[in-house]
Amino acid sequence: MSDPTRRGELFGDANSAGRFTGPTTGDERRMLVDVLHAQRATLQLKCSGLGPELSLRSVEPSTLSLLGLVRHLTDVERRWFRQVLAGQNAPALFSSTADPDGDFDGATDDHGAVAAAWEAWRTEVAFAEQFVIEAPDLDIKGDDSWRGTVSLRWVVIHMIEEYARHNGHADLLRERIDGAIGM
Fold this sequence. Notes:
- It is a single chain.
- By secondary structure, the protein is mainly α.
- It is built from five helices and two strands; from the N terminus they run ααααββα.
- Strands 1-2 form a two-stranded antiparallel ribbon.
- Helix 1 (28-47) packs parallel to helix 5 (152-178), helix 2 packs parallel to helix 4 and helix 2 (66-85) packs antiparallel against helix 5 (152-178).
C-alpha cells in the first residue's frame, strides 16, 4: 500500500493541539466550558499570523471574511451573555437593525479596525467566561425575543454550535488566503 500524503501541510504550533484536552467525562459545566473554549481557540488559530488578509472575502457575492467572522462572533457573544442572560442594555458593536450585515460588510483591512475587532472579541469572551464562572448553575434563565426563555446551558450549547459552524467557514477562508489547512 502506498504512503498517503496530504495535499498541504497542517498548520498550527505545538500549543494548538492543547485545544482539545478537556475532560470527556464528569462535570457537565466543565465539559461544556472546555468545548466552548476549544472552539474559541480554533477561531484564533484559523486567524493566526494574518493581518490585513483577515478582511479578504470568500467569493462574490459573499462578504464572508475571517475578520467578519470575528466581528460576527463578538456580536453573538455580546447578545447572548450580556443582553439575554445578564439583562444589560448592550447593543451590538458591529451590526444593527439599520445595518444587519455590518459585522461582515464593515470588515476592512485597516490595522486599527482589525485590532479593535480582536479587542472587542476578547472583551466579550472574558465577560462570557466570567459570567459562566459566577453563575450558580446552568439553569439560570434569560428572555430572548427570538427563542423566548433560554437557560445558560442552552446558550453555551448554542455558542459551541455557532463557533463550530463558523470555524468550518474559517477553514475554507484560511485555505483560500494562504493554503493553510488543519483542524
